[in-house]
Design a protein that fits this description.
This protein is of the alpha+beta class. Helices cover 36% and strands 10% of the residues. It has 2 domains: 151 residues, Phosphorylase Kinase, domain 1; 292 residues, Transferase(Phosphotransferase) domain 1 (Transferase(Phosphotransferase), domain 1, Orthogonal Bundle), CATH 1.10.510.10.
Length: 453
């Protein structure tokens, strides 16, 4: 297929904030995720209990010893043609990735061969094996197995045929169609659900710490999956509000409070997600050195437009050519605006973000002809023009950046939640009405039968 299938498959290297080993972070063992008091369950056990860990025999890709998680180095060398150049998919921060086919099962896989020269690569290997063995969700990439044969460290993942989100957003060749608006919302909603699982379902919570467009992989149908968990951290538990750690991640996606203080929370991930959502809406990179100085940082460039409702349309990816419903576009910008708030406490929980985006993604694919007919005129062939910006029910901001009453980016999640609740109530009312009519019908039949008797 020839398409990079992993975050590290991209030959374009993105600068890491601190690629070296974290101070005070020892390479963790899968059996020592958190300290364990006598009689209490470990962090690993608590995580496993709430994330429905599958037994080894249920996992694909059996290794030579019958352990579904382990492979020998020779097995993976055979799968990749001895890591030959035509199987090479890309280079990442900690190793190279190759496409292969498992000899025993015939399954096509991605094999990540980690650099063993530094401690950070070994630490990433241990963290990723731990996380992906315990965490299972439709929006997380599947770890099929691993190899720890002598000094070799390799990870084996399911192959993602459509590559990464970055491959479909940036530096597109002239003959490649840009992602449709509905597809972008589908990807955003799926990525948010994966992050919601890490934050709200895992126990203790998992902070992803390296969310970016190159780490969102796509399978057939543009179904998104989060990948590359080498920088993930277990979140704070008990009365702790944050985890203190050396700043790691990718420039342009890192939350400002984490970059300045090293204090990591789940809201740090929410900020990174907001940057990815802006990428989906604008088609721009988080950091683009090819643009003029004032436009290189996506968040800094976008903020003034987010504070002026008349300029919101300037944030739309020009490759979309205006083919999107304006109300959905404005609400998506409202969600992004909340996620990239400077103050971590002002950002919404990822669960609310996921609910809002799932609602937006549920809108039918945009049909410009139908939209124009519904409005009673052509309006540029059904495309959204600049003078239509004030229409719809999206977020509205005045010129000074203050939200208009009852319709601001800060209210968007609450508005969408009300919409969801209203739709559910309507559906429940319909079911209730049908049940009542059915009971009355049955009661009428029984009364008729009794009178005939």
């Amino acid at each position: 297929m020839g398409i990079g299938c992993f975050s590290c498959l991209n030959s374009r290297k993105v600068p890491k904030l601190n690629p070296e080993k974290e101070r005070g972070d020892q390479p963790p063992s899968p059996l020592s995720v958190s300290s364990r008091a006598p009689g209490s369950s470990s962090g690993t056990e608590r995580l496993g209990k709430r994330t429905n860990v599958k037994s080894k025999r249920e996992r694909p890709g059996l290794g030579a010893q019958g352990d579904s998680y382990t492979f020998t180095y020779q097995e993976l060398a055979t799968a990749t043609g001895n890591f030959r150049p035509d199987c090479f998919l890309g280079e990442g921060g900690f190793g190279s990735v190759y496409k292969g086919r498992l000899e025993r099962t015939g399954q096509v896989v991605a094999v990540k061969k980690l650099n063993t020269s530094g401690l950070q690569g070994n630490r990433e290997f241990l963290v990723e094996v731990l996380m992906l063995r315990l965490l299972h969700h439709p929006n997380l990439v599947n770890l099929i197995g691993y190899c720890a044969d002598r000094d070799q460290r390799l990870l084996v993942y399911e192959f993602m045929p459509l590559g990464s989100l970055e491959d479909h957003l940036h530096d597109l060749p002239p003959d490649k169609e840009p992602l449709a608006w509905s597809t972008r919302m589908k990807i955003a909603a799926g990525a948010a659900r994966g992050l919601e699982y890490l934050h709200d379902k895992a126990n203790p919570p998992v902070i992803y710490r390296d969310l970016k467009s190159s780490n969102i992989l796509l399978e057939e149908g543009f179904h998104p999956k989060l990948s590359d968990f080498g920088l993930a951290k277990l979140g704070p538990v008990g009365d702790k509000s944050h985890v203190s750690t050396r700043v790691m991640g990718t420039y342009g996606y890192c939350a400002p409070e984490y970059a300045m203080t090293g204090k990591l929370t789940v809201k740090s991930d929410v900020y990174s997600f907001g940057v990815v959502l802006l990428e989906l809406i604008t088609g721009r990179k988080a950091i683009d050195g090819q643009l003029p100085h004032g436009e290189q940082n996506l968040v800094k460039w976008a903020r003034p437009y987010l504070n002026d409702r008349r300029k919101l349309v300037k944030l739309a990816d020009p490759r979309l050519q205006g083919c999107f419903p304006m109300s959905v576009f404005c609400r998506a910008l409202g969600v992004a605006s909340m996620c990239i708030k400077e103050e971590a406490a002002a950002r919404p929980p990822i669960g609310e973000v996921a609910a809002a985006l799932s609602f937006l993604a549920s809108h039918k694919a945009y049909d410009p002809n139908k939209e124009a007919k519904a409005k009673g005129n052509e309006r540029g062939g059904g495309r959204i023009l600049g003078n239509e910006l004030g229409e719809g029910s999206g977020p509205r901001l005045d010129l000074e950046g203050r939200p208009e009453k009852g319709d601001s980016p800060g209210d968007t999640t609450r508005v969408l939640n009300k919409d969801l609740q209203r739709e559910r109530a309507v559906a429940e009312a319909k079911i209730w009405g049908e049940n009542v009519r059915e009971k009355r019908k049955q009661g009428g039949q029984e009364s008729s039968d009794g009178s005939n008797g």
